[in-house]
Each structure stands twice: as structure tokens, then as C-alpha cells.
Amino acid sequence: MTISEIDAVVSEIDIAASPQVVFAFFVDPDKMVRWMGASAKLEPRAGGRYAVDISPQIRARGSYVEVVPPSRVVFTFGWEGDAEVPPGSSTVEVTLTPDGDGTHVRLVHRGLLAAAQRDQHRDGWQMYLARLAVAAAGGDPGTDPNVA
């Protein structure tokens, strides 16, 4: 862990799918909603929109900062209507590393100022990455449990 990650959320998982397959789940709206949210509007290019609606009340908003197929995605992140983590106020960096026939996914979420925010987002990312592992490997993780 680097100095810049001391106050960051770091979540990692190994997925039984190639980096090319896993990468698509971060940039394709149809694939995104297989593991997170009910709807997504994604423009995967620097400055492009990142919008994932978990439910009508829970809406993640930000923009893509860096998109490097099939190894890296960086986007700003926050919640509409949330003063503590407003849209675009934090940054999520996803690194996809080949690991045999699969992929090691490392997600680092920076800019969460309060410990409670970090704890909440750590729990959320761990749950969502587990769902991503199922979806990217060709399984059905079921409906997002946070979709209302």
C-alpha cells in the first residue's frame, strides 16, 4: 500500500475471465447493469459521462478520466444529492492484470474524507466486485440487492 492509499478504499478480487472481458463490464452500459445498478449511461472516454442509477434515489455520477483497454479505467465518482460525497468528488481507479486464464482486479477509491464513508464504500465495492466476478465469468449474480 502506498502513502496515497492510506485513506483510500482498496478492494481486490481474482476473476475467471480475461482482462478484455472484465474491462467491458466497466465501459458497456448493458454489461455494467449485470453487476451494478438498474440503469447506466456511460461514455468511456476522457471527460465522458459516468452515470449509474442504483435506484431512483441512489444515483452515482462522475466522468471518465482515463480509459486504457483492457487494463485500466479511472473515473470520478459521487452521489447525486449527497453533500458528503457529491458527484465527481472522489476518484475510482481500476487496474486489470492478466493472471493465468483470469484477471486480477484492483480497485482503489480515493477522496473519501471520513472513515465512515470509507467503510461504507469498502463494503459496497467488495459486494459489487463479488457480483462482477460472477457476471464476468458468465454467471448470473441476480438483481442488484440495492435496487429499490
Task: Provide an overview of this structure.
Helices cover 26% and strands 34% of the residues. By secondary structure, the chain is α+β, with helices and mostly antiparallel strands.
Topology:
Layout: E1 9-15, H1 19-27, H2 29-35, E2 39-42, E3 49-53, E4 59-68, E5 72-77, E6 90-99, E7 102-110, H3 115-136
Antiparallel strand pairs: 1-7, 2-3, 3-4, 4-5, 5-6, 6-7
Helix pairs in contact: 1-2
Poorly predicted runs are none
Which sequence of strands runs across the widest sheet?
1-7-6-5-4-3-2
Query: How much beta, percentage-wise?
Result: 25-35%
Mean pLDDT: 94
User: What is the H/E string?
Assistant: EHHEEEEEEH
The CATH topology is what? Alpha-D-Glucose-1,6-Bisphosphate, Chain A, domain 4
> Radius of gyration, rounded?
14 Å
Percent helix, as a range, is 25-40%
The geometry reads as: globular
Q: Could you give me the name of the CATH homologous superfamily?
A: START domain
Name of the CATH architecture: 2-Layer Sandwich
What is the distance, rounded to the nearest whole angstrom, between the alpha carbons of the first and last residues?
Answer: 36 Å
CATH class, named Alpha Beta
How many discrete domains?
Answer: 1
Structural category is: alpha+beta
Provide tags for this entry.
single chain; 148 residues; alpha+beta; Alpha-D-Glucose-1,6-Bisphosphate, Chain A, domain 4; 7-stranded antiparallel beta sheet; 3 helices; 7 strands; globular
